[in-house]
Amino acid sequence: MLEGELSDPRIAPSHVTEVVLAPGGKSARVFIAVHGSEQEEESTLEALTSARGYIRSQLRDRMGVRHVPELSFAIDRSEKMTGRMDELLNRMRKREKKATPSQP
Fold first, then answer.
1. Which domain holds residue 54?
2. Which CATH number is 69's domain given?
3. Residue 8 lies in a domain
4. What is the pLDDT of residues 67-94, one digit of tens each?
5. What's the confidence (pLDDT) of residue 1?
6. Cβ neighbours of residue 49 closer than 8 Å, sequence gap 6 or more
7. Residue 51 CB: number of other CB atoms within 10 A?
8. How far apart are CA 14 and CA 35, in angstroms?
9. In the chain, what's the furthest Cα-to-Cα distance?
């Protein structure tokens, strides 16, 4: 639904990483990973926030339930952080290989 049905140009390529439902089910926090810059993250967040009424109505229709929780959206940067950590670890390994004298 994020990219296919919402035609807002502010929405960058993204996907839902986690949904945390509050006790009682009256609200839910939806975490989104955005594939783009920080500016694209912010514009995507703004677009989703402005479309939350439409998103709730679509969820209500598709799920066939009477009540859909109030939605709030947050950016999930864990994938970017994981990628950055992998990059740093790879750099360290390369430096260690260069620093280790080669054996004949």
1. 14-99
2. 3.30.300.20
3. no
4. 999 999 999 988 776 777 777 788 888 8
5. 65
6. 72, 73
7. 21
8. 6
9. 73
pLDDT at 88: 79
Place of tokens 């439902």: 21
Token readout for 21 is 């439902």
Q: Label each residue of 10-73 as H, E or C.
A: CCCCEEEEEEEECCCCCEEEEEEEECCCHHHHHHHHHHHHHCHHHHHHHHHHHHCCCCCCEEEE
Residue 5 forms part of a structural domain: no
Assigned domain for 2 exists: no
**How many whole angstroms separate alpha carbon 47 and alpha carbon 36?**
15
Q: Is 79 helix (H, G, I), strand (E, B) or coil?
A: helix
Q: Please check whether residue 71 lies inside any domain of the structure.
A: yes
DSSP state of 77: -
What is the value of pTM for the model shown? 0.73
Task: Say how many domains are in the chain.
Answer: 1
Cα separation, 48 vs 55, in Å, equals 8
